[in-house]
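Shipment paperwork, digital attachment
Item: protein structure file
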Amino acid sequence: MNQPIPAIVAQDAVRRLPRAALLLFCVAYVISGFVGRDPWKNADIAAFGHMLELARGTSSWLAPSLAGQPPEFDALLPYWLGALAIKLAPAWVAPDFAVRLPFALLLALALAATWYGVYWLARSPRAQPVPFAFGGEASAPDYARAMADGGLLALIASLGLAQLSHETTPALAQLAFTALTFFGMAALPWRPPLAAGALLLGLPGLALSGGASMAVLFGAGGLAARALDRDRHGPASPALQAALLAAALALAAALATGLDLWRWRIGPGRDWQSLGRLLLWFTWPAWPLALWTLWRWRRQLASRHVALPLWFALVALVTTMATPSSDRSLLLALPALAALAAFALPTFSRSASALIDWFTLLFFSGCAVVIWVVWVAMQTGVPAKPAANVARLAPGFEPGFGLPAFLAALAATIAWGWLVRWRTRRHRQVIWKSVVLPAGGAALCWLLLMTLWLPVLDYARSYRTVVAGVVRHIDAPGCVETFGLSRAQIAGLRFHSGMEVRAAGREPACGWLLVALQASAAAPVALDMRGWTPVARVRRPVDATEDVLLYRKAQGR
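Attachment content:
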Protein backbone atom coordinates (compact mmCIF):
# COMPACT_ATOMS: atom_id res chain seq x y z
CA MET A 1 0.00 0.00 0.00
CA ASN A 2 1.29 3.50 -0.87
CA GLN A 3 2.41 5.69 2.00
CA PRO A 4 0.79 9.17 2.20
CA ILE A 5 4.36 10.49 1.97
CA PRO A 6 6.26 8.41 -0.63
CA ALA A 7 9.78 9.58 0.27
CA ILE A 8 11.64 7.11 2.45
CA VAL A 9 15.17 8.46 2.80
CA ALA A 10 17.93 7.55 5.22
CA GLN A 11 20.63 9.95 6.35
CA ASP A 12 23.25 8.10 4.29
CA ALA A 13 21.27 8.90 1.13
CA VAL A 14 21.63 12.68 1.45
CA ARG A 15 25.37 13.02 1.25
CA ARG A 16 26.45 16.31 -0.21
CA LEU A 17 27.57 16.56 -3.78
CA PRO A 18 31.03 18.18 -3.41
CA ARG A 19 30.53 21.96 -3.65
CA ALA A 20 33.74 22.59 -5.58
CA ALA A 21 32.83 19.95 -8.17
CA LEU A 22 29.28 21.29 -8.53
CA LEU A 23 30.48 24.88 -8.89
CA LEU A 24 33.13 23.94 -11.45
CA PHE A 25 30.55 21.95 -13.37
CA CYS A 26 28.15 24.91 -13.49
CA VAL A 27 30.91 27.35 -14.50
CA ALA A 28 31.97 25.10 -17.38
CA TYR A 29 28.37 24.79 -18.56
CA VAL A 30 27.74 28.54 -18.40
CA ILE A 31 30.95 29.62 -20.12
CA SER A 32 30.82 27.17 -23.04
CA GLY A 33 28.71 28.77 -25.73
CA PHE A 34 29.33 32.36 -24.68
CA VAL A 35 32.99 32.45 -25.74
CA GLY A 36 34.70 32.36 -29.11
CA ARG A 37 31.85 32.76 -31.57
CA ASP A 38 29.99 35.35 -33.64
CA PRO A 39 26.35 36.22 -32.96
CA TRP A 40 24.24 33.51 -34.59
CA LYS A 41 21.09 33.67 -36.66
CA ASN A 42 18.30 34.46 -36.08
CA ALA A 43 17.18 35.70 -32.67
CA ASP A 44 20.72 35.99 -31.28
CA ILE A 45 22.07 38.38 -33.92
CA ALA A 46 18.76 40.29 -34.16
CA ALA A 47 18.69 40.99 -30.41
CA PHE A 48 22.35 41.98 -30.51
CA GLY A 49 21.57 44.39 -33.36
CA HIS A 50 19.00 46.21 -31.23
CA MET A 51 21.48 46.43 -28.34
CA LEU A 52 24.13 47.84 -30.65
CA GLU A 53 21.75 50.51 -31.94
CA LEU A 54 20.90 51.55 -28.38
CA ALA A 55 24.56 51.76 -27.42
CA ARG A 56 25.36 53.90 -30.48
CA GLY A 57 22.50 56.26 -29.77
CA THR A 58 20.62 55.55 -33.02
CA SER A 59 17.56 54.07 -31.31
CA SER A 60 15.23 55.10 -28.50
CA TRP A 61 15.70 53.34 -25.18
CA LEU A 62 11.95 53.15 -24.70
CA ALA A 63 11.27 51.98 -28.26
CA PRO A 64 14.26 49.99 -29.57
CA SER A 65 14.46 49.63 -33.34
CA LEU A 66 16.81 48.32 -35.99
CA ALA A 67 16.75 50.10 -39.35
CA GLY A 68 13.25 51.26 -38.52
CA GLN A 69 12.01 47.82 -37.46
CA PRO A 70 10.87 47.14 -33.88
CA PRO A 71 12.13 44.06 -32.00
CA GLU A 72 10.42 40.74 -32.51
CA PHE A 73 9.89 40.51 -28.75
CA ASP A 74 8.25 43.37 -26.83
CA ALA A 75 10.98 43.66 -24.23
CA LEU A 76 13.12 46.45 -22.84
CA LEU A 77 15.33 45.22 -20.01
CA PRO A 78 17.38 42.65 -22.01
CA TYR A 79 18.21 45.26 -24.65
CA TRP A 80 19.12 47.75 -21.93
CA LEU A 81 21.47 45.26 -20.30
CA GLY A 82 23.25 44.51 -23.56
CA ALA A 83 23.53 48.17 -24.54
CA LEU A 84 24.90 49.15 -21.13
CA ALA A 85 27.45 46.33 -21.34
CA ILE A 86 28.65 47.68 -24.69
CA LYS A 87 28.89 51.23 -23.37
CA LEU A 88 30.70 50.24 -20.18
CA ALA A 89 33.12 47.76 -21.77
CA PRO A 90 36.65 48.92 -22.60
CA ALA A 91 37.36 49.76 -26.22
CA TRP A 92 39.39 46.58 -26.72
CA VAL A 93 36.39 44.35 -25.83
CA ALA A 94 34.32 43.38 -28.87
CA PRO A 95 30.68 44.49 -28.58
CA ASP A 96 29.30 41.01 -29.25
CA PHE A 97 31.40 39.61 -26.39
CA ALA A 98 30.51 42.49 -24.06
CA VAL A 99 26.78 41.78 -24.34
CA ARG A 100 27.34 38.14 -23.42
CA LEU A 101 28.72 39.01 -19.99
CA PRO A 102 25.40 40.11 -18.41
CA PHE A 103 23.61 37.24 -20.13
CA ALA A 104 26.10 34.73 -18.74
CA LEU A 105 25.28 36.15 -15.32
CA LEU A 106 21.57 35.73 -16.08
CA LEU A 107 22.14 32.04 -16.82
CA ALA A 108 24.11 31.67 -13.60
CA LEU A 109 21.23 33.40 -11.79
CA ALA A 110 18.74 30.93 -13.30
CA LEU A 111 20.81 27.96 -12.08
CA ALA A 112 21.31 29.39 -8.59
CA ALA A 113 17.66 30.41 -8.21
CA THR A 114 16.51 26.94 -9.23
CA TRP A 115 18.79 25.35 -6.65
CA TYR A 116 17.54 27.56 -3.84
CA GLY A 117 13.93 27.27 -4.98
CA VAL A 118 14.04 23.49 -4.74
CA TYR A 119 15.86 23.74 -1.41
CA TRP A 120 13.15 25.80 0.25
CA LEU A 121 10.35 23.70 -1.24
CA ALA A 122 12.02 20.61 0.17
CA ARG A 123 12.02 22.22 3.62
CA SER A 124 8.19 22.16 3.63
CA PRO A 125 6.80 19.72 6.23
CA ARG A 126 4.75 17.78 3.66
CA ALA A 127 7.84 17.34 1.48
CA GLN A 128 9.89 15.73 4.23
CA PRO A 129 10.60 11.97 4.13
CA VAL A 130 8.82 9.48 6.35
CA PRO A 131 10.28 9.43 9.90
CA PHE A 132 11.71 6.09 10.96
CA ALA A 133 10.52 4.30 14.07
CA PHE A 134 14.01 4.22 15.60
CA GLY A 135 15.52 7.29 13.93
CA GLY A 136 18.04 7.46 11.11
CA GLU A 137 15.87 9.31 8.59
CA ALA A 138 17.44 12.18 6.68
CA SER A 139 17.66 15.50 8.51
CA ALA A 140 15.64 18.34 7.00
CA PRO A 141 18.58 20.58 5.91
CA ASP A 142 20.59 17.69 4.44
CA TYR A 143 17.53 16.30 2.67
CA ALA A 144 16.67 19.71 1.20
CA ARG A 145 20.26 20.22 0.06
CA ALA A 146 20.36 16.85 -1.67
CA MET A 147 17.04 17.55 -3.37
CA ALA A 148 18.30 20.94 -4.53
CA ASP A 149 21.38 19.28 -6.02
CA GLY A 150 19.08 16.90 -7.87
CA GLY A 151 16.90 19.75 -9.15
CA LEU A 152 19.89 21.70 -10.44
CA LEU A 153 21.29 18.62 -12.19
CA ALA A 154 17.88 17.92 -13.73
CA LEU A 155 17.78 21.48 -15.11
CA ILE A 156 21.24 21.22 -16.66
CA ALA A 157 20.33 17.81 -18.09
CA SER A 158 17.33 19.29 -19.96
CA LEU A 159 18.24 19.17 -23.63
CA GLY A 160 16.35 22.33 -24.55
CA LEU A 161 18.31 24.48 -22.12
CA ALA A 162 21.65 24.37 -23.92
CA GLN A 163 21.34 26.61 -26.98
CA LEU A 164 18.61 29.05 -25.90
CA SER A 165 20.30 29.70 -22.55
CA HIS A 166 23.51 30.75 -24.33
CA GLU A 167 21.93 33.35 -26.61
CA THR A 168 21.72 37.07 -25.84
CA THR A 169 17.95 37.21 -26.27
CA PRO A 170 14.96 38.18 -24.10
CA ALA A 171 14.25 34.44 -23.71
CA LEU A 172 17.27 34.02 -21.43
CA ALA A 173 16.26 37.06 -19.37
CA GLN A 174 12.76 35.62 -19.04
CA LEU A 175 14.23 32.30 -17.88
CA ALA A 176 16.37 34.00 -15.23
CA PHE A 177 13.55 36.15 -13.87
CA THR A 178 11.12 33.21 -13.92
CA ALA A 179 13.59 31.16 -11.86
CA LEU A 180 14.11 34.12 -9.52
CA THR A 181 10.34 34.47 -9.08
CA PHE A 182 10.08 30.73 -8.42
CA PHE A 183 12.76 30.97 -5.76
CA GLY A 184 11.07 33.98 -4.15
CA MET A 185 7.76 32.16 -3.80
CA ALA A 186 9.45 29.02 -2.49
CA ALA A 187 11.48 30.88 0.14
CA LEU A 188 8.77 33.35 1.15
CA PRO A 189 7.62 31.49 4.30
CA TRP A 190 11.19 30.98 5.50
CA ARG A 191 13.18 34.04 4.45
CA PRO A 192 10.68 36.91 3.95
CA PRO A 193 13.17 39.76 3.32
CA LEU A 194 15.28 37.76 0.86
CA ALA A 195 12.22 36.32 -0.85
CA ALA A 196 10.60 39.76 -1.11
CA GLY A 197 13.74 41.07 -2.83
CA ALA A 198 13.68 38.17 -5.26
CA LEU A 199 10.01 38.76 -6.06
CA LEU A 200 10.49 42.51 -6.46
CA LEU A 201 13.24 41.77 -8.99
CA GLY A 202 11.75 38.66 -10.57
CA LEU A 203 8.19 39.69 -11.43
CA PRO A 204 9.01 43.22 -12.69
CA GLY A 205 12.09 41.86 -14.47
CA LEU A 206 9.94 39.28 -16.23
CA ALA A 207 7.46 42.00 -17.22
CA LEU A 208 10.26 44.19 -18.61
CA SER A 209 11.66 41.21 -20.51
CA GLY A 210 8.53 40.66 -22.58
CA GLY A 211 6.66 38.35 -20.21
CA ALA A 212 4.22 40.73 -18.50
CA SER A 213 1.26 38.39 -18.93
CA MET A 214 3.21 35.41 -17.60
CA ALA A 215 4.42 37.48 -14.63
CA VAL A 216 0.80 38.18 -13.68
CA LEU A 217 -0.16 34.52 -14.11
CA PHE A 218 2.80 33.33 -12.03
CA GLY A 219 2.00 35.86 -9.31
CA ALA A 220 -1.70 35.00 -9.26
CA GLY A 221 -0.85 31.30 -9.04
CA GLY A 222 1.48 31.99 -6.15
CA LEU A 223 -1.27 33.81 -4.29
CA ALA A 224 -3.68 30.94 -4.94
CA ALA A 225 -1.16 28.36 -3.75
CA ARG A 226 -0.62 30.40 -0.61
CA ALA A 227 -4.37 30.52 0.03
CA LEU A 228 -4.87 26.78 -0.53
CA ASP A 229 -1.93 25.71 1.61
CA ARG A 230 -3.18 25.45 5.18
CA ASP A 231 0.13 24.40 6.70
CA ARG A 232 2.29 26.85 8.56
CA HIS A 233 5.80 27.11 7.12
CA GLY A 234 8.58 29.16 8.63
CA PRO A 235 8.39 32.39 10.59
CA ALA A 236 6.45 34.52 8.08
CA SER A 237 2.69 34.79 8.62
CA PRO A 238 0.36 33.95 5.71
CA ALA A 239 -0.84 37.56 5.66
CA LEU A 240 2.71 38.89 5.33
CA GLN A 241 3.49 36.43 2.56
CA ALA A 242 0.39 37.42 0.61
CA ALA A 243 1.14 41.13 1.08
CA LEU A 244 4.73 40.83 -0.17
CA LEU A 245 3.70 38.78 -3.18
CA ALA A 246 0.83 41.15 -4.01
CA ALA A 247 3.19 44.15 -3.81
CA ALA A 248 5.62 42.56 -6.27
CA LEU A 249 2.76 41.63 -8.57
CA ALA A 250 1.36 45.17 -8.45
CA LEU A 251 4.77 46.63 -9.30
CA ALA A 252 5.12 44.31 -12.29
CA ALA A 253 1.64 45.23 -13.55
CA ALA A 254 2.30 48.95 -13.06
CA LEU A 255 5.56 48.80 -15.04
CA ALA A 256 3.94 46.83 -17.85
CA THR A 257 1.07 49.32 -18.00
CA GLY A 258 3.25 52.41 -17.82
CA LEU A 259 5.64 51.20 -20.52
CA ASP A 260 2.92 49.61 -22.68
CA LEU A 261 4.34 46.09 -22.45
CA TRP A 262 1.08 44.16 -22.44
CA ARG A 263 1.18 41.83 -25.41
CA TRP A 264 -0.65 38.57 -26.03
CA ARG A 265 1.15 36.85 -28.89
CA ILE A 266 -1.54 34.22 -29.37
CA GLY A 267 -1.49 32.77 -32.84
CA PRO A 268 -0.81 29.70 -34.93
CA GLY A 269 2.10 27.73 -33.60
CA ARG A 270 3.41 24.27 -34.39
CA ASP A 271 1.13 21.46 -35.43
CA TRP A 272 0.34 18.91 -32.75
CA GLN A 273 2.80 16.34 -34.04
CA SER A 274 5.64 18.85 -34.13
CA LEU A 275 4.65 20.18 -30.73
CA GLY A 276 4.67 16.69 -29.30
CA ARG A 277 8.18 16.07 -30.57
CA LEU A 278 9.29 19.40 -29.11
CA LEU A 279 7.89 18.53 -25.70
CA LEU A 280 9.51 15.09 -25.76
CA TRP A 281 13.08 16.15 -26.53
CA PHE A 282 13.17 19.74 -25.25
CA THR A 283 12.26 18.85 -21.65
CA TRP A 284 14.01 15.47 -21.55
CA PRO A 285 14.76 13.97 -19.00
CA ALA A 286 12.76 16.23 -16.67
CA TRP A 287 9.30 15.44 -18.05
CA PRO A 288 9.14 11.69 -17.26
CA LEU A 289 10.51 12.38 -13.78
CA ALA A 290 7.94 15.17 -13.30
CA LEU A 291 5.11 12.84 -14.31
CA TRP A 292 6.41 10.25 -11.86
CA THR A 293 6.41 12.90 -9.13
CA LEU A 294 2.77 13.78 -9.83
CA TRP A 295 1.84 10.12 -9.50
CA ARG A 296 3.85 9.29 -6.41
CA TRP A 297 2.97 12.55 -4.62
CA ARG A 298 -0.66 12.58 -5.82
CA ARG A 299 -1.94 12.85 -2.26
CA GLN A 300 0.00 16.10 -1.82
CA LEU A 301 -0.93 17.86 -5.06
CA ALA A 302 -2.26 20.85 -3.10
CA SER A 303 0.93 21.09 -1.04
CA ARG A 304 3.24 23.94 -2.02
CA HIS A 305 6.21 21.73 -2.97
CA VAL A 306 4.06 20.17 -5.73
CA ALA A 307 1.47 22.85 -6.44
CA LEU A 308 3.91 25.73 -6.96
CA PRO A 309 6.19 24.12 -9.60
CA LEU A 310 3.17 22.47 -11.20
CA TRP A 311 1.52 25.87 -11.71
CA PHE A 312 4.70 27.37 -13.21
CA ALA A 313 5.04 24.41 -15.56
CA LEU A 314 1.39 24.51 -16.64
CA VAL A 315 1.49 28.24 -17.42
CA ALA A 316 4.57 27.78 -19.59
CA LEU A 317 3.14 24.68 -21.31
CA VAL A 318 -0.15 26.41 -22.16
CA THR A 319 1.78 29.41 -23.47
CA THR A 320 3.89 27.06 -25.57
CA MET A 321 0.78 25.66 -27.23
CA ALA A 322 -0.82 29.07 -27.80
CA THR A 323 2.07 31.14 -29.16
CA PRO A 324 4.26 30.93 -32.29
CA SER A 325 7.55 31.08 -30.34
CA SER A 326 6.89 27.70 -28.73
CA ASP A 327 10.44 26.70 -27.87
CA ARG A 328 11.21 29.99 -26.13
CA SER A 329 7.98 29.79 -24.16
CA LEU A 330 8.73 26.19 -23.20
CA LEU A 331 12.12 27.30 -21.89
CA LEU A 332 10.35 28.94 -18.95
CA ALA A 333 8.93 25.60 -17.85
CA LEU A 334 12.36 24.04 -17.26
CA PRO A 335 13.08 25.33 -13.71
CA ALA A 336 9.65 24.14 -12.51
CA LEU A 337 9.95 20.79 -14.29
CA ALA A 338 13.41 20.36 -12.75
CA ALA A 339 11.89 20.99 -9.31
CA LEU A 340 9.18 18.40 -9.93
CA ALA A 341 11.82 15.99 -11.22
CA ALA A 342 13.80 16.39 -8.00
CA PHE A 343 10.89 15.12 -5.92
CA ALA A 344 10.81 11.94 -8.00
CA LEU A 345 14.35 11.02 -6.95
CA PRO A 346 13.66 9.75 -3.38
CA THR A 347 10.85 7.52 -4.69
CA PHE A 348 12.85 5.58 -7.29
CA SER A 349 13.52 1.90 -7.03
CA ARG A 350 17.00 0.59 -7.72
CA SER A 351 15.91 -0.95 -11.04
CA ALA A 352 14.42 2.35 -12.29
CA SER A 353 17.59 4.20 -11.35
CA ALA A 354 19.72 1.60 -13.15
CA LEU A 355 17.57 1.91 -16.29
CA ILE A 356 18.10 5.69 -16.36
CA ASP A 357 21.84 5.24 -15.89
CA TRP A 358 22.22 2.72 -18.70
CA PHE A 359 20.11 4.70 -21.15
CA THR A 360 22.01 7.89 -20.35
CA LEU A 361 25.38 6.19 -20.59
CA LEU A 362 24.65 4.73 -24.02
CA PHE A 363 22.96 7.85 -25.42
CA PHE A 364 25.49 10.49 -24.40
CA SER A 365 28.54 8.28 -24.94
CA GLY A 366 27.26 7.60 -28.46
CA CYS A 367 26.73 11.32 -29.08
CA ALA A 368 30.24 12.10 -27.83
CA VAL A 369 31.74 9.46 -30.12
CA VAL A 370 29.90 10.92 -33.13
CA ILE A 371 31.15 14.43 -32.32
CA TRP A 372 34.74 13.22 -32.02
CA VAL A 373 34.56 11.12 -35.21
CA VAL A 374 33.20 14.01 -37.26
CA TRP A 375 35.87 16.32 -35.84
CA VAL A 376 38.62 13.86 -36.78
CA ALA A 377 37.07 13.61 -40.25
CA MET A 378 37.13 17.40 -40.61
CA GLN A 379 40.80 17.49 -39.61
CA THR A 380 42.09 14.50 -41.59
CA GLY A 381 39.46 13.55 -44.18
CA VAL A 382 39.10 10.13 -42.56
CA PRO A 383 36.50 8.65 -42.27
CA ALA A 384 35.60 9.88 -45.72
CA LYS A 385 31.80 9.90 -45.40
CA PRO A 386 31.57 12.31 -42.43
CA ALA A 387 34.13 14.57 -44.11
CA ALA A 388 32.06 14.57 -47.31
CA ASN A 389 28.90 15.39 -45.36
CA VAL A 390 30.56 18.40 -43.74
CA ALA A 391 31.83 19.59 -47.13
CA ARG A 392 28.32 19.25 -48.57
CA LEU A 393 26.54 20.98 -45.71
CA ALA A 394 29.13 23.75 -45.26
CA PRO A 395 30.70 24.35 -48.69
CA GLY A 396 33.79 26.51 -48.54
CA PHE A 397 34.54 25.82 -44.89
CA GLU A 398 38.24 25.40 -44.13
CA PRO A 399 38.80 23.51 -40.86
CA GLY A 400 41.62 24.44 -38.52
CA PHE A 401 43.11 23.02 -35.36
CA GLY A 402 42.65 24.97 -32.13
CA LEU A 403 44.75 23.67 -29.25
CA PRO A 404 42.76 25.28 -26.39
CA ALA A 405 39.49 23.93 -27.79
CA PHE A 406 41.00 20.47 -28.24
CA LEU A 407 42.36 20.41 -24.69
CA ALA A 408 39.02 21.54 -23.25
CA ALA A 409 37.19 18.84 -25.21
CA LEU A 410 39.71 16.20 -24.15
CA ALA A 411 39.42 17.23 -20.50
CA ALA A 412 35.62 17.07 -20.69
CA THR A 413 35.74 13.60 -22.22
CA ILE A 414 38.13 12.35 -19.55
CA ALA A 415 35.87 13.86 -16.88
CA TRP A 416 32.93 11.99 -18.39
CA GLY A 417 34.82 8.72 -18.18
CA TRP A 418 35.70 9.43 -14.56
CA LEU A 419 32.06 10.32 -13.79
CA VAL A 420 30.82 7.05 -15.27
CA ARG A 421 33.38 5.10 -13.26
CA TRP A 422 32.51 7.04 -10.08
CA ARG A 423 28.79 6.53 -10.59
CA THR A 424 29.14 2.78 -10.97
CA ARG A 425 31.45 2.28 -8.00
CA ARG A 426 30.57 4.76 -5.26
CA HIS A 427 27.65 6.54 -3.59
CA ARG A 428 25.01 4.18 -4.92
CA GLN A 429 22.52 5.25 -2.29
CA VAL A 430 22.52 9.06 -2.65
CA ILE A 431 19.19 10.33 -3.95
CA TRP A 432 20.64 12.64 -6.62
CA LYS A 433 22.56 9.80 -8.27
CA SER A 434 19.95 9.25 -11.02
CA VAL A 435 20.49 12.71 -12.56
CA VAL A 436 24.29 12.85 -12.33
CA LEU A 437 24.87 11.04 -15.61
CA PRO A 438 22.10 12.89 -17.54
CA ALA A 439 23.47 16.26 -16.42
CA GLY A 440 27.07 15.25 -17.06
CA GLY A 441 26.22 13.82 -20.48
CA ALA A 442 24.28 16.90 -21.56
CA ALA A 443 27.08 19.18 -20.42
CA LEU A 444 29.69 16.97 -22.12
CA CYS A 445 27.97 17.03 -25.51
CA TRP A 446 27.29 20.76 -25.30
CA LEU A 447 30.93 21.47 -24.43
CA LEU A 448 32.17 19.22 -27.24
CA LEU A 449 29.93 21.04 -29.71
CA MET A 450 31.16 24.41 -28.46
CA THR A 451 34.81 23.42 -28.81
CA LEU A 452 35.35 20.80 -31.52
CA TRP A 453 32.46 21.84 -33.77
CA LEU A 454 32.44 25.55 -32.97
CA PRO A 455 34.33 26.69 -36.11
CA VAL A 456 31.96 24.93 -38.51
CA LEU A 457 28.90 25.94 -36.49
CA ASP A 458 30.11 29.53 -36.49
CA TYR A 459 30.63 29.36 -40.23
CA ALA A 460 27.15 27.95 -40.76
CA ARG A 461 25.22 30.16 -38.35
CA SER A 462 27.05 33.48 -38.63
CA TYR A 463 26.47 36.16 -41.27
CA ARG A 464 30.17 37.03 -41.44
CA THR A 465 30.76 35.14 -44.71
CA VAL A 466 27.88 36.66 -46.66
CA VAL A 467 28.67 40.17 -45.38
CA ALA A 468 32.29 39.75 -46.44
CA GLY A 469 31.01 38.80 -49.90
CA VAL A 470 28.94 41.99 -50.04
CA VAL A 471 31.81 44.22 -48.90
CA ARG A 472 34.13 42.76 -51.56
CA HIS A 473 31.91 44.22 -54.29
CA ILE A 474 31.57 47.68 -52.72
CA ASP A 475 34.48 49.93 -53.63
CA ALA A 476 33.65 52.72 -51.18
CA PRO A 477 31.73 51.41 -48.15
CA GLY A 478 29.51 54.06 -46.65
CA CYS A 479 25.83 53.30 -46.52
CA VAL A 480 23.59 50.70 -48.07
CA GLU A 481 19.83 50.50 -48.55
CA THR A 482 18.01 47.25 -47.91
CA PHE A 483 14.76 45.72 -49.08
CA GLY A 484 13.25 42.51 -47.79
CA LEU A 485 16.08 41.70 -45.39
CA SER A 486 15.18 40.19 -42.02
CA ARG A 487 16.16 41.77 -38.72
CA ALA A 488 18.91 39.18 -38.38
CA GLN A 489 20.34 39.95 -41.82
CA ILE A 490 20.25 43.69 -41.16
CA ALA A 491 21.97 43.26 -37.80
CA GLY A 492 24.64 41.03 -39.34
CA LEU A 493 25.26 43.54 -42.13
CA ARG A 494 25.41 46.43 -39.68
CA PHE A 495 27.81 44.67 -37.30
CA HIS A 496 30.16 42.83 -39.63
CA SER A 497 30.50 45.60 -42.23
CA GLY A 498 30.28 48.73 -40.09
CA MET A 499 28.25 50.43 -42.82
CA GLU A 500 25.18 52.53 -42.24
CA VAL A 501 22.05 50.57 -43.10
CA ARG A 502 18.88 52.33 -44.27
CA ALA A 503 15.50 51.15 -45.44
CA ALA A 504 15.14 51.39 -49.23
CA GLY A 505 13.18 54.29 -50.67
CA ARG A 506 14.07 56.83 -48.03
CA GLU A 507 16.04 60.02 -48.48
CA PRO A 508 18.90 60.64 -48.66
CA ALA A 509 19.57 57.69 -50.94
CA CYS A 510 22.65 55.46 -50.72
CA GLY A 511 24.77 54.32 -53.60
CA TRP A 512 24.12 50.65 -52.94
CA LEU A 513 21.02 48.51 -52.54
CA LEU A 514 20.70 45.02 -51.07
CA VAL A 515 17.59 43.00 -51.90
CA ALA A 516 16.77 39.68 -50.28
CA LEU A 517 16.49 36.94 -52.87
CA GLN A 518 13.02 35.96 -51.69
CA ALA A 519 11.86 39.58 -52.03
CA SER A 520 13.39 40.19 -55.45
CA ALA A 521 10.07 39.71 -57.28
CA ALA A 522 8.39 42.36 -55.13
CA ALA A 523 11.22 44.90 -55.38
CA PRO A 524 10.22 46.36 -58.82
CA VAL A 525 6.67 46.85 -57.52
CA ALA A 526 7.61 48.49 -54.22
CA LEU A 527 10.66 50.42 -55.42
CA ASP A 528 11.69 52.45 -58.42
CA MET A 529 14.43 50.20 -59.73
CA ARG A 530 15.32 52.48 -62.62
CA GLY A 531 18.88 53.56 -62.26
CA TRP A 532 19.89 50.55 -60.19
CA THR A 533 22.43 48.30 -61.88
CA PRO A 534 22.79 44.66 -60.79
CA VAL A 535 26.26 43.96 -59.46
CA ALA A 536 26.26 40.48 -57.91
CA ARG A 537 24.28 37.77 -56.27
CA VAL A 538 26.04 37.19 -52.96
CA ARG A 539 25.57 33.66 -51.73
CA ARG A 540 25.28 32.41 -48.20
CA PRO A 541 27.17 29.10 -48.47
CA VAL A 542 24.95 27.05 -46.17
CA ASP A 543 21.52 28.46 -47.11
CA ALA A 544 20.70 29.59 -50.65
CA THR A 545 17.38 31.06 -49.51
CA GLU A 546 19.33 33.79 -47.71
CA ASP A 547 21.23 34.95 -50.78
CA VAL A 548 21.12 38.69 -51.42
CA LEU A 549 21.18 40.71 -54.65
CA LEU A 550 23.50 43.71 -54.72
CA TYR A 551 22.69 46.76 -56.90
CA ARG A 552 24.64 49.92 -57.58
CA LYS A 553 23.05 53.27 -58.24
CA ALA A 554 23.95 54.72 -61.60
CA GLN A 555 25.81 58.00 -61.59
CA GLY A 556 23.58 61.03 -61.78
CA ARG A 557 20.45 59.23 -60.56
